[in-house]
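1st attempt posting a full record on here, be nice pls
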Amino acid sequence: MSPRSLLALTLALFLVAAELPARTPLKPGRNAFSKEQDVELGREASRKIEQQVKVVDDPALRNYITDLGRRLYSTVREPDANYPFNFHVVADKSINAFALPGGPLYVNTGTIVAADNEAQLAGVIGHEIGHVIMRHSTNQITKAQTAQLPLAILGAVLGSGAAGQLTSVVAQLGVGSVFLKFSRDAERQADVLGTQMLYDAGYNPEEMARFFQKLAGEGGRGPEFFSDHPDPGNRMNAVQAEARTLGAARTSTALTDRFQAMKRLAQQWNNRAPSPNQKGGGASSSGTSGGSTGSRPEINASGTFRSYNGSGFRISHPESWNASVQESTVLIAPQQGVVNDGIAYGAMISVFEPQEQRGVRLTLSEATRQLLEQLAQQNPDMRRSGGTRSINVNGIAADSITLSNKSPLRGETEVDWVVTTWRPDGMLFYIIFIAPERDFSRLKPAFDQMLNSLQLAN
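the predicted structure (as tokens):
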């Protein structure tokens, strides 16, 4: 090539680069897994998930979501973002979507029905594609020491991509654990990538933020989505700022005939899907499988206590009890206390993001009331046993409420003692101490000792 030709080529490339819209650069976090292991881990997790959910087998709906997902993915400019994406629809009325490592992506029929236009639905899918490309799931497993997930399991994977070892990770972490719960920084990155994908695919990227804002503003229509996808803060402003860097605003919302037809089809599946209450969940239905007979186990809470360091908190618990993470919840229970896939004895620790009213910060009692309303929706047998008491936990103001509920032990009623307080980041921190009614007073001293040991990070 002559010097003149080289100069012309260089100038042409410079002009092309200059015409490309600016976009926020993103960098994946530290990751101990290879990309191949992401794919294998996602494949194993997908098999397990599809044993627990109803995947829609309607070709028209499946093809529509696949076409939409591929259209968005084809715009991705991130280096090494070649993953074997596959897209699925889940017959579920709740508004949610999630993606597994390496590419399996699931959208609930409730999300399709809730979207006002195709751009909003594309925003949800683009957001989930962003999680995969930034490798947020395996990044969270890599950071497992913070949440005290079993590092020995992680270590077994690092030297090999064997399916058996990866299956062990999926089984012991649980399907609904770190795969489905992301940090606010991860949400911010997924928002940025989703914005870029929507813009490049010809949609108005603000529709993504508008959809999330709509869910948050209408009485928390999407509590399942926000429990897995915490708001990174100023989401609408951040999306608008990113969109401005990309160039002229796109106006397409794509209220297409095909979208409308698929929305009607999703509604038909919604009509046949179980409601959230029918699916179970809540205080007594979370946890890993333990005893299956439902008979009364012998629970020992005496002896020495050991410390557990969670994400943003520290607490002590009986040494013979185990701590694990399921979804966004820390479960502390004796092995015999997990019965019929529910906690009969132990404690659940988690956070809840209350919905502010007219932009006014809620009081602790108001936020606690919202939490109790959500728990009641998830647990139709849950009842209040008394009023709310104000207590003090290591110098921190807290609310205390006693509830009754159906125990996973057959024929038993349990006591659920709920304690709530504010976390420094504005989230509501709560603990639910659980035991059958006839055993609760015997275990109350151990629960008191656990509560008195609680320390929240500043």
